[in-house]
Write a structure and sequence with these properties.
By secondary structure, this protein is an alpha+beta fold. The protein is 35% helix and 22% strand. Strands 4, 5, 6, 12, 13, 14, 15, 16 and 17 form a nine-stranded mixed β-sheet that branches. Strands 1, 2, 8, 9, 10, 11, 18 and 19 form an eight-stranded mixed β-sheet that branches. It is globular, with a radius of gyration of 22 Å. Bound molecules: flavin-adenine dinucleotide.
Length: 484
């Protein structure tokens, strides 16, 4: 025993550390009312965790990752006892605040997939298409009323250099047998009219959903399967419990054979080792009042596609079921030390910038007002695709880091996590996407400095017709970056 050992000191230090961790988690996941339109309409809160509960599998986090994982687990074995512990409310994180674009890509787009996983891109495209079809099927089979619309998407060019990029992109898509059609300015403007459009690339295979109703609908499907979902149950500690794992939350604990950490941008608060695997980045959106039929007539948009413009810093926008325009993106804001929590849910400077960009894109909608605005945390890895891992000797598994394309990719992650727990010989577990870890972010203060340098270099590249300066070229060489 060490000469500096004093009875009790270790314990109280541990207790103090646990208190600090609890406080950090409570602060980061607090305040349900983050302003998201998608979370409107109160649903009765689900019961918090009380007493000690046993389960086969416990899941931390009721965003899409946690919910899709629970669905995949109970599909595989309907008798499994699965408990989901959510700090706040179902869909409180990015899952209840996102743009609702559903894309088949598991790799943050085709170009990213080709750059990082050239040898398995064919398999990843096949799995992505299968996952997209499975998502549509799940929504229909479980009767989830989430305004699913199979609209496709259009990438629009708003600067001449982007036309060349879209033409090159069309060829890359054709090269792997994916459907994508180049549109000239008149053709894009016939779909959706903005004087800023110079051309576009239409992707017929994509959808939009109401993200909040998707999250709540998935939770409803889990209720029907007997999965216990507890809200107001922030897990403050995961620890070994013999061969099992114990999850502690205020008022209770779960002892389970295995646990799934489905906390995405919040993961470092509970499992420190994830801190260098991703950065939480805040992304913000504006939402207009519903357009009148006359306002709709000024812009067209009869086919209601999801739209993204093609700069390095890009906007994404779409119609809601009641014909509002959701307009988001462009800024991706990182806070020092993986900062996350309600104090970052709003950012006035970004809202003003987004509003100016909206007015420039649709000058014919000057009389349209913004009704809502909010932000949410995205977890991005240096390669922009998810990463998977485990802790506590394999008792805990996790998947995180979908960057800005998590609506469908989380469903795929749910299957990977299920297989890690129950199907060890699954071919999904051999994919490099699953086994290879992304290059880690450096520790602070280098991380913040690197992200800031990258943000500035990206903005400069957009101002200089897409030319990638020395910093971006260096990152490209190492296959790393920063995105929302
Ligand atoms: C503004 C915005 C726009 C986006 N747009 C799109 C889009 O159009 N298309 C697309 O595909 N993707 C989009 N994304 C990304 C997508 O929303 C995410 O990738 C996806 O929702 C991640 O789901 P998740 O379940 O992993 O994380 P989250 O939804 O963040 O869920 C994590 C959950 O864990 C809970 N939690 C955290 N810590 C604890 C704890 N200790 N104990 C218990 N619970 C805890 C949180 O409260 C939260 O509910 C967007 C994201 C944002 C923020």
């Amino acid at each position: 025993m060490s000469a500096t050992y004093h009875p009790g000191v270790g314990d109280s230090a541990t207790a103090r550390a646990a208190d600090r961790r609890r406080a950090r988690i409570a602060a980061a996941t607090g305040a349900h009312r983050n302003g998201s339109f998608w979370l409107d309409g109160d649903t009765p809160p689900r019961p918090p965790l009380t007493g000690q509960v046993t389960a086969d599998i416990a899941i931390v986090g009721a965003g899409y990752t946690g919910l899709w994982t629970a669905l995949a687990l109970t599909e595989h074995d309907p008798g499994l006892r699965v408990v989901v512990l959510e700090a706040t409310r179902v869909g409180h994180g990015a899952s209840g605040r996102n743009g609702g674009f559903v894309e088949a890509s598991l790799t943050h787009g085709l170009h990213n997939g080709l750059a990082h996983f050239p040898d398995e891109i064919g398999e990843l495209l096949r799995l992505g298409a299968e996952n997209f079809a499975g998502l549509v099927d799940d929504i229909r089979r479980h009767g989830i009323d989430c305004d699913l619309e199979l609209t496709g998407t259009i990438d629009v060019a708003t600067a001449p250099w982007q036309l060349d990029e879209l033409a090159a992109s069309a060829e890359v898509h054709a090269g792997v047998g994916e459907r994508a059609t180049l549109l000239d300015a008149d053709e894009v403007r016939a779909e959706l009219d903005s004087p800023t459009y110079l051309g576009g690339l239409a992707h017929p295979d994509g959808a939009i959903v109401h993200p909040g109703r998707l999250a709540r609908g998935l939770a409803g499907a889990l209720d029907d399967r007997g999965v216990a979902i507890h809200e107001g149950a922030p897990v403050s500690r995961l620890r070994r419990h013999g061969a099992r794992v114990r999850l502690e939350a205020p008022g209770g604990a779960v002892v389970a054979d295995r646990a799934v950490l489905a906390t995405n941008a919040y993961s470092h608060l509970l499992l420190r080792r994830t801190a260098r695997q991703f950065v939480p980045v805040y992304d913000y959106v504006l939402l207009t009042e519903p357009l009148t039929p006359e306002q709709r007539a000024r812009i067209g948009w009869a086919n209601r596609q999801g739209i993204a413009d093609s700069g390095n810093q890009f906007h994404y926008y779409r119609l809601t079921g009641d014909d509002r325009i959701l307009w988001g993106g462009y800024d991706a804001v990182y806070r020092f030390g993986n900062g996350i929590g309600p104090r970052f849910d709003h950012r006035r400077a970004t809202y003003d910038l987004l509003a100016r960009h909206f007015r420039a894109t649709f000058p014919q909608l000057r009389d349209l007002r913004f009704a809502r605005w909010w932000g949410g945390p995205i977890a991005t890895t240096t390669r922009f695709t998810a990463t998977f891992g485990e802790a506590l000797g394999g008792r805990v598994v996790y998947g995180l880091g979908y960057t800005g394309l998590g609506v469908a990719a989380t469903r795929f992650a749910g299957r990977v996590l299920r297989d890690r727990l129950l199907v060890p010989d699954s071919p999904l577990l051999d994919l490099r996407l699953v086994t290879a870890a992304p290059f880690p972010f450096p520790p602070e203060p280098l991380r913040w400095t690197g992200v800031e340098l990258t943000r500035r270099a990206i903005a400069r590249s957009d101002r200089r017709a897409g030319a990638r300066g020395p910093w971006l070229r260096l990152l490209d060489r190492f296959g790393v970056g920063f995105d929302s």
